[in-house]
Amino acid sequence: MYQNNYGGALRRLNAITEKLESLDFANTPGYVINGLKREELIALNSTLLHELYFASLGVAGKPTAALADVLARDFGSLDRWRSEFVAMGNALAGGSGWVLLVYMPRDRRLINQYAAEHSQAVAGGIPILALDMYEHAYHIDFGANAKAYVDAFMRNVNWKAVEGRYEDAAKVEPPRPLVQPEFGDLPGVTVEEVKAMLDAGKPVQIIDARPQHYVSRTQDIIEGAVWRDPERVQEWAGELSKSDPVVVFCMYGFDVGCKTAIALREAGFDAKFMKGGHSAWKAIGGPTKMHV
Q1: Residue 221 belongs to what H/E stretch?
Q2: What angle, 0 to 180 degrees and rounded to 10, lies between the N-to-C axes of helices 30-56 and 159-170?
Q3: Are 135 and 97 in contact (CB under 8 A)?
Q4: With contact defined as beta carbons under 8 Å apart, do 111 and 73 qualify?
Q5: In angstroms, how far is CA 241 from the centroid of its own chain?
Q6: Which of 23, 59, 187, 197 sits at a 20 to 30 Å CA gap from 145?
Q7: Do the beta carbons of residue 239 and residue 229 sit within 8 Å?
Q8: What are 274's strand-pairing partners?
Q9: Would the pTM of this model clear 0.90, i.e. be above it?
Q10: Half-sphere exposure of 195 (CA within 13 A, CB side)
């Protein structure tokens, strides 16, 4: 595997790099550039992930105490992390792909990530452990018994090296928050907070302020919300109660939702915008209904 797969990926990467360096980009057709950059991504990720895979193996042992504490913190328990990681590997049996333990600087936590075809990755994530589930990684030694291969891998992880990579990754500062300075003073609430209010039966007026074209295309709306045209705030604001709080959201929680919330606050309502918008609500599994 080292010579054929890793070596082959490295040779492809060198050849692609050489080809890209020779291009006249201003006069090269787009499909040629797209094809080369796609193949560059696949070859580069294959090289990097194989290097991480080889570096992940060593003597049998257990996670270091420090790393075990981090895994327990981010997954609930060490056993819970291991159970998920192993299950993800077993789920890829007979197929292809990678199982990666990845550090997310933005959230300062570890996650298990699935990746396929050397071209999928969590943006901003830093892999610290890699399990190769392509058949070439285990077929010669284990045949079709991918489960035995996964078990053998887990018994031979070089945890000291994984801890070192985690320590390096944890030093990476998270990216700057994705905020809009012009809305910096506008109060906001998270989707989790909104869901908690609804679950507790608290009085809250939830306004879906997504533009018409979004609503007509997606056709789903948060359970308990009412859609209102953000372009006609002055017309429907009078239907709201000033005694109950108002939560406004748009598609992603930025421009439209914030501007609508500002207009309502200027009209005397206790209005806040929902951070992340409709997309964040769906991401946490919040209940929705069909918008008619």
Answers
A1: strand 220-222
A2: 130
A3: no
A4: no
A5: 38
A6: 59
A7: no
A8: 189
A9: no
A10: 16
